[in-house]
Predict the structure.
Amino acid sequence: MAPILGRYGPFLLYGYTAALYVGILSGLLLTAWRVTRSPDKALATVWFDAFLLCLAMALIGGRVGFVIGEWGYFQERLPLAWRIWQGGL
């Protein structure tokens, strides 16, 4: 996979990030499609809430795993552990 797929001004689009977004969007679209075919329409909000919860937990868990894996760096710079916009997911 290409490390950098494109540049848009100061922003870089990385291949891993693009694959992650495609997977997330595919999961959301598949869930929405399956829910529309279900006879229980109240189920749609439950599945969407579950999707958002899983997405949040994946982001938090990914960052925690990165910080644990790079503990030698973050041990002395603990406030930097929350800067998810600097990569490491």
About this structure: The first strand starts at residue 4 and ends at 8. The chain has one domain: 4-86. DSSP finds three helices and two strands in the chain.
